[in-house]
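Pilot study result, target chain (143 residues):
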Amino acid sequence: MAIKQLAVFVQNKKGTLVSVTDTLAKNNVNLRALSIAETADLGILRLIVNDNDTAVKALSAEGYLIKTIDVVGVKIGDAPGKLTEALAVLDKADINVEYLYAFMTRTEKHAYVVLRVEDNNAAEKVLEDAGFHIITEADVDKL
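Predicted structure:
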């Protein structure tokens, strides 16, 4: 049930992000979640989009290096401590979270979180067993 994340390798310079987002917009690709990690020269722009194939083709045509990665999406309550509950479930199951970031959603009372873990299946199982809803590609398409 993992969802697809695009990791776009970009230069850390003025205009790069607008170039990426403009390319996606011109190809009718909508952003659902994003995060960027940067160094002095380079960055990794992590994206969840509504159309992976189109995004990869469009950005590749512009010269960007892209990697598709399976990640876990989980729906949590939008209240203090709810993220901690989900993270504690993973911690108890000895599953390390490499990084996380939140979705842009239109839902009320919930937040969608993207988790990068070593074993998606194990993470999804323990989260579901603890009562959390795992987000699917179909859920992303509805946003």
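One observation from the pilot: Helices lie at 16-26, 52-61, 82-92, 120-129, 137-142. A full batch analysis is planned for the follow-on phase.
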